[in-house]
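Researcher: Let's do a round of design. I'm pasting the structure tokens now; please hold your answer until I've finished.
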């Protein structure tokens, strides 16, 4: 498995397994199948409601902890009469308990809202204590990312953002590269929007390599040095998504995919006031 080296020297597999939108009752089976297929990088979050099932799958697998890379995420903390710093540490402890782990490899601020500066200070301390080997953010636009970097001690190791052929984030990636932040994709297949799996450009490239459209998209990400965490509950698809290291897209094919970029989200805008209020009103611990 190819890996990327984060800004603090931690090695992160470039291809992992995501569990967003997998029901809690299906997650353990899915993660066990993913681990059996060869995945060693798992991505979950407190807000997904399936950390305990991920932890149960890890335990059942018998795979040595040091051979796994586990990510989870901190939801927006609400402490109007208390301490966001303390609540962030408490939420991290709750995630560890659910996962059944002593540490995580990557801990992310899930949304760029609320008092994320206090959250970040708590995460910096968790990193220094060795309980989170690396820390980062998710869904941060460049302005907020730069502001966080410029006013804190530790530079985020990762920024996990919507990235797929129709919203490629090339300028964001270039800025992150200059600041030492690794880009990671969520939604690599755009959840099938814009008829991604039957797109004529992607389908033609897939046919040329004897691969699926999904494999072409993942290979395109990897050649861009984007960490990617596809999700599936079907073992055959899990195995197929891992089989992307035996072929290479040509420069022409990469450019053809580049031309698909619309420059806009297919999901939601983190700068939309209604979306900010909706996300801020959700509670997870």
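Researcher: That's everything. Go ahead.
Model: Designed sequence:
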């Amino acid at each position: 498995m190819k890996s990327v080296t984060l800004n603090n020297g931690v090695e992160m597999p470039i291809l992992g397994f995501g569990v967003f939108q997998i029901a809690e009752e299906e997650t353990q089976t899915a993660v066990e199948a993913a681990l059996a297929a060869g995945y060693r990088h798992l991505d979950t979050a407190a807000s997904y409601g399936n950390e305990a099932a991920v932890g149960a799958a890890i335990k059942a697998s018998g795979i040595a902890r040091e051979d796994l890379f586990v990510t989870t995420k901190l939801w927006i903390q609400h402490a109007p009469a208390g301490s966001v710093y303390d609540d962030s540490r408490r939420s991290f402890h709750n995630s560890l308990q659910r996962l059944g782990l002593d540490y995580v490899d990557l801990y992310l601020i899930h949304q760029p809202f609320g008092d994320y500066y206090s959250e970040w200070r708590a995460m910096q301390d968790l990193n220094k204590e060795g309980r989170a080997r690396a820390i980062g953010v998710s869904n941060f636009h460049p302005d907020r990312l730069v502001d966080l970097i410029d006013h804190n001690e530790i530079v985020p190791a990762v920024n996990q953002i919507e990235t797929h052929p129709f919203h490629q984030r090339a300028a964001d990636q270039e800025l992150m590269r200059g600041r030492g932040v690794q880009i990671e994709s969520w939604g690599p297949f755009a959840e099938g929007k814009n008829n991604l799996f039957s797109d004529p450009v992607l389908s033609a490239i897939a046919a040329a390599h004897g691969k699926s459209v999904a494999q072409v998209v993942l290979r395109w990400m990897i050649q861009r040095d984007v960490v990617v965490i596809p999700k599936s509950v079907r073992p055959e698809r899990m195995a197929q998504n891992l089989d992307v290291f035996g072929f290479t897209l040509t420069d022409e094919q990469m450019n053809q995919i580049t031309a698909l970029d619309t420059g806009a989200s297919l999901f939601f805008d983190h700068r939309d006031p209604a979306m900010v209020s909706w996300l801020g009103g959700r509670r997870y611990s």
